[in-house]
Amino acid sequence: MNTRILEEAIERAALEAITRSVIYIPPDVKEALKRIYSEEESESSRSQIGAILRNIELAERMKRPVCQDTGILLYYVRVGYEFPSIKIIEKSLVNAAKVATKTIPLRPNTVNPLTGRNPGDNTGRYMPYINIEFIDGDILEFTVVPKGGGSEYVSVLYMPPPGEGVKAIKRAVVDAVLRAGPMPCPPTIVGVGIGGGADIALHIAKKAACLRRLGSPNPAPELDKLERELYVALNELGIGAMGVGGRFTVLAVHIDYAYRHPAILPIGIVFQCWAVRRATAVVEPNGSYKVFQ
Ligand code: SF4
Question: What pTM, to 2 d.p., does this model score?
Fold first, then answer.
């Protein structure tokens, strides 16, 4: 297939994925928010969740971003070894970010960390950030995650003495949520990455927070149990929706792990606010594609 045509198809798929992700909250998240709305007993927290649900409805009806902070764009790419052209992927994904900034529009959020210079199109060094993984087959699949600044602000890495094990993990998660308070716009999904190294722990924590569907059980039974325990413990903190006090501070705790060096126990904790933005595109070698949430 003509490379130019494929490049345009990837760009269109990415533009559609970005557009969907910033306007429509994924169905699993909407369901979870409706559930806690019906179960919340605190009146002030219930009114916050009600406002969030109305906000979601209005965004859908008016086809406008669900939050003014349209985040920085992260792409999680899985590309088949047999996909016809690897080198066009990055260019197409970056172009889609530029076009989306104008057409949706997105808030131009990327700035030089030292000078504050803003290129105005959500690009810049390493931006949008593209994670690439190679897989068998000939398709290209990517999920776009516009990640808001408020929830990222309180993301954190702990390095407890490795001998403390699970006790240290529980303490770190509770400490992070208490310190974060209302800042990450609760109810949040708390991503926890255990092991690997400093960067790996945060990377897998972010993937767990932003990509994993709510309601999907953790495939590791011991982590599934830990997730349930932490979910109960964190909601007992009483921070509530947007920090006004209530039964639901978190929608879920999602944990992932990597093997580690015996001398370290990195624990990465990444928050995803209620405004979960994600959409996935699958592009075939012939340029046809589908986008879904
Ligand atoms: S933390 Fe999330 S909901 Fe809050 S302002 Fe940022 S993007 Fe919006």
Answer: 0.96
